[in-house]
Amino acid sequence: MAKLNILVVEDDALSRKVMAAELKAHAVEFAETAAAARKKLAGGRYDVAFLDLELGPKDDCSGLTLIAPAVARRAYVVVMSGHDSEETVEKAYELGCHDFYSKGLVGESVARVLARFTRHKDLPETEKLFTNRFVTEDPETRAAVLDALKYASSDLPLLILGPSGTGKTSLARVLHEQSGRAGAFVAVNCAAYTEDLLEAELFGYRRGAFTGADGQRKGRLLEADGGTLFLDEIGAMSLSMQSKLLKAIEEKSFYPLGSDKPESSSFRVMSATLEDMPAMVQAGRLRFDFFQRLHGKTVALKPLSRRPADVTALVAHFTRGGRRLSFAAEAKERLLAHPWPGNIRELKRFVDLVTAGHEGRISGEAVELLLVQARAESPKPGGAALSEEQYRYAREHGLSALVDRIVDAAVARCLAENAGKKTKVLAELKVSTRLLYSSLERAGRGGL
Question: Distance (Å, rounded) from C-alpha 56 to C-alpha 85?
Fold first, then answer.
């Protein structure tokens, strides 16, 4: 292996000594703090950056905060930890790291990490993208992502469509990283807030703006200055909130709650939804001018059930740096036959379960048992909790209107996933022709 330039960010003296011994064949620099690491990354060029997960008691001392600047400098980023959790590993990969080194894991070593770096380095750029950042082997999905990347460096708004769990946030993060924008990637799940809380989250607030506002907070719009504001589940946003946000997007300025002084922010907008946005406009749930502002370029992601090649690729990705899984032939067949209604998120949970509870070769029976268990543990339709947004909508418009809204969303999604075939919708949703056409009529699509 050729001599590499390596940065090791580690605050433990003994760990630095061990890393120095293992990397003696390479040019290695050490940093003991996150601040020192940022200076080195700003002024140096490294092939590989090893980032210790915990560098101090504060959030800004976490090695996770160094992933973005290290990726921006084109380093192969390896997060290190001696007591990692599944949540931490997932977060590290979401933030853009290429590998995760678990200290003390049997069979893992720095040499193996460097071997994986060598394989990564020899891959074409598109293969690096599809094996590390947005894992897919599906030709149509690859083509859609590559087409979207053509617009990554523009200021054009990007809209990502697809069912929940298909990787919309991961794709948005990739597009931001390829945009060349120096600011942060700021993601907001619009469905996770009531209208008032969403306004405070986006615009920020000053002391005394509302009950409980004991201090002031910088809003997400300001955090995204010079970067990307990613609005997930945009269909959950109220018409009033759409109007306020549209004004901020167009004017690049806004007033924090309780303030008479405007703030300025130059951010690029990306958004995502699983709903049919033209149908939402027709139904009066989405402002037409707001829709026009969001869909400069649209990319659609297919559900995992229509990307069978991605199942095994994602299993390999989720187990990278940890225990590898070996499936018997009938187990692979069962995995590929499963519809994965929860898409990539469901597959990740399955991998977590099988990794924690099985060793050696995994049988088809074991796979079937885990899938049955997962279905049994899933919330039943009758026991599903209302979201805050749904409850607010029911109180404002009535329960019947909420039921129609849910029906319309399910019909629109099923139509989108089945290329507009109404016979498929009738069969999959088990609804009457009358209910289907009533929904289409409400959405202004009765002639489909």
Answer: 18
| Backbone φ and ψ of 51, nearest 5° | -115, 115
Distance CA 428, CA 442 (A): 20
Q: How far is CA 25 from CA 49, 89, 99, 182, in A?
A: 16, 28, 21, 34
**Does the pTM of the predicted model rise above 0.70?**
no
- Using a 10 angstrom Cβ sphere, with 0-12 exposed, 13-18 middle and 19 or more buried, the burial of residue 42 is exposed
Tokens at 149, concatenated: 């990347």
The DSSP bridge pattern shows strands 228-232 and 268-273 to be: parallel
What distance in Å separates the CA atoms of residue 298 and residue 277, rounded to the nearest whole number?
11
> Using CA atoms, how far apart are residues 196 and 206, in angstroms rounded to an integer?
14
Tell me the HSE value of 125 on the side-chain side, using a 13 A CA sphere.
4
Residue 79 β-bridge partners: 51, 100
CB 71: neighbour CB atoms within 10 A?
Answer: 19
Do 308 and 140 touch, CB atoms closer than 8 A? no
Contact 170, 345 (CB under 8 A): no
Please tell me the number of Cα atoms within 13 Å of 318 on its side-chain side: 23
C-alpha to C-alpha distances, 19 to 10, 11, 16, 430, nearest whole angstrom: 9, 12, 5, 60
**Which of 274-294 are b and which e, b meaning 16 or more Cβ less than 10 Å from the residue's Cβ?**
bbbbbbbbbbebbbeebbebb
CA separation (Å) from 4 to 28, 79, 269?
8, 18, 38
163 phi and psi, to 5 degrees? -60, 160
340-397 pLDDT, tens digit per residue, is 988 998 898 888 888 877 766 888 888 888 887 766 555 544 445 566 567 777 777 7
Residue with tokens 């498929």: 424
* DSSP-assigned letters across all residues of 94-158: HTT-SEEEETT-TT--HHHHHHHHHHHHHS-HHHHIIIIIS----HHHHHHHHHHHTTTTS---E
DSSP 80: E
- Tell which phi-psi region holds residue 343, choosing left (phi > 0), alpha (psi between -120 and 50) or beta: left
User: How many C-beta atoms surround the C-beta of residue 134 within 10 A?
Assistant: 18
Which residue positions in the chain have pLDDT lower than 70? 1, 56-61, 83-84, 86, 104-107, 122-124, 211-213, 321-324, 359-360, 374-389, 445-448
